[in-house]
Specification:
272 residues; alpha+beta; four-stranded mixed β-sheet; 6 helices; extended
Length: 272
């Protein structure tokens, strides 16, 4: 009987111990966490099946992480009157530096000369702005669009050929065959021609001759232009399926028109 009473008291004491432990640790775990970083430490984790379990907690942070999104590059153009910087480095419409000045002074110059402010280099210290006319902005936008168009896209192979305007006929034919092979592989081909001192050959005529040779499958990606004195370049590319189809239809149309014209000529000769 005594043994039974002792066992009953021990069981009751164990239940009370577990209940008090759950209350104590439950209060700790339900408290509102502070926004701070904790280092690893040992703590007691309550387990309903066991009186106590020791475990190593992992470091954690309850503070919210700030996600800074990268700034997208703004398109080239007028910034209007919204200038977030107090001090600017200003360049006038002729490309001459006017030095550093307060944004209010830059806006005053813009209004006085009826110009627009364009951001050139935001990462400079201070940021660089330029006063430009609407025509200058339009021309610069076209130039940048042409440059972007001419730059090879990722995954596209670009080959280059360079020769003088005094190139011999046989050498030009060899170069043209090489271009045709690259075009067949759908490569972009950049052709650079240097004006020879003793040559009167027009570089643009040579570009047209090359294009005429590969005109069945190629066209200009970037039309011939003078890059610097005595040097001109162009970029050729393979036509798309849509362009090839349109070219084929155009040839068929021209062939039909020519055939009708020949028949009309023959008919008029018979009536004479």
């Amino acid at each position: 009987m005594t043994t039974f009473c002792v066992m009953k008291l021990l069981c009751q004491a164990t239940r009370n111990k577990n209940r008090y432990a759950k209350r104590f640790f439950g209060t700790l775990l339900t408290q509102t966490p502070q926004k701070s970083v904790f280092s690893p430490f040992w703590m007691v984790v309550p387990d309903p099946r066991k009186s106590s379990v020791f475990g190593l907690t992992q470091p954690f942070c309850t503070a919210e992480k700030s996600h800074t999104e990268p700034k997208t590059k703004a398109a080239f153009g007028s910034v209007g009157r919204r200038i977030p910087y107090r001090i600017l480095h200003v360049i006038n419409q002729d490309g001459e530096s006017l030095g550093n000045m307060h944004r209010a002074e830059a806006l005053k110059l813009m209004d006085q000369h009826d110009l627009k402010l364009v951001l050139l280099r935001e990462n400079a210290e201070p940021p660089v702005y330029r006063l430009m006319t609407g025509q200058q902005i339009h021309e610069e936008q076209l130039r940048r669009a042409e440059k972007k168009k001419a730059s090879p896209k990722p995954g596209v192979v670009q080959k280059e050929l360079s020769f003088s305007s005094a190139i011999a006929k046989n050498d030009l034919e060899t170069k043209t065959k090489q271009i045709a092979q690259w075009i067949e592989k759908k490569y972009h081909v950049k052709v650079t021609i240097r004006q020879a001192k003793d040559s009167n050959t027009d570089m643009f005529v040579l570009f047209d001759q090359i294009l005429e040779t590969v005109s069945e499958k190629a066209t200009y990606l970037s039309k011939p232009k003078v890059t610097r004195e005595g040097v001109s370049t162009c970029i050729l590319r393979h036509m798309s399926d849509k362009e090839l189809k349109a070219q084929k239809m155009e040839k068929q149309k021209n062939s039909t028109v020519k055939k009708d014209e020949n028949e009309d000529v023959k008919s008029s000769e018979l009536h004479q």
